[in-house]
Amino acid sequence: MTRLINHEKLRNIVTEICTHAGSEGEEPAQVAENLVVANLMGHDSHGVGMLPRYIQCVHSGSLNPNASAEIVVDSGALIVVDGKAGYGQMVGSQAMDFGIERAKEHGVAIVATRNSFHLCRIGAWAERCAQAGYISMHHTNVMGQKPLVAPYGGSEARYVTNPYTVGLPATAESPMTVLDMATSVIAMGKVRVAKNKDEQVAEDVLLDKDGNPTTDPNVMFNSPTGAVLPFGEHKGGGLALMNELLAGILSGGQTMRGDTLLKSDAIINCMLSIIIDPSKLVDNAFYTAELDATLQWVKDSKPIDPDKPVLVPGEPEQIMKAEREANGIPVDDVTWEEVLAAAESVGLGRNRITDMSV
To answer: Pseudo-torsion of CA 129, 131, 133, 139, nearest 10°?
Structure first.
């Protein structure tokens, strides 16, 4: 069963739980905003279903509420930021703000972020840069948990879903254009969503513990685990490896290997971000004209299905956001039960959370 919850009520629920888990100031609301926007955009894998894991990690000490990002290497346009295992919703925004300030000064900034707890939907950081008028590219890896994704041609997992993300600022005619994709066929969170809904995943997505193809999401939650496959065979596998190397090495946060796996329940991200002021390369009129004309040229392609127009990156999310703002965010029973248990663990009664959702 799935319930529909108003997005503002869901924000209040997440804010309340984070506050009772020790977050102060703007942190509870910022975590809530980030998670609920992921749900609104249709990325339930990175939405409120992540909250129970966050609260578990607060209890274990692997997530540090109220930690602030710190610049630990400063070379002007190139900086390294340490997140001190703080909430990624805070660390990500602080790191991007550092980068935006440096890009204002130098025209470009390279920000290598390490030791951030889960940065969640990386598209949020591309959107933050785009809203400030900057183009950005992000390479991300994950530490602190067992590998989940097999390399191309392999039957055993060697890294995680290692997303690649690009964002371009909007114009008067075109919304911001954001590509945010896992380098696996699907994000691990979507496997979790399928498990919670007692659904199968598509074929050619998962391998079981013996390296055999399967549609059963439970293979990723058993021991030993299976593996998610890379998208596009060698293309996705190669991009995943490059993200692993760029994010893990240049941030100083390490790459995932057998000898670097953390003995904890943490989700630690490293991210290499390149932030560009497009006005330092071309004038704004050229940028606007080229972006608008190119997006329109692409969207004018005759659709294969007349009922499904051609969309550009970022548009599906905006369509879903409008629909879910109007009708509510679907939360399956298993995820809702996990949220209620997380609330109980920080001293909030189930009835309190249930009442807030109505």
So the answer is: 20
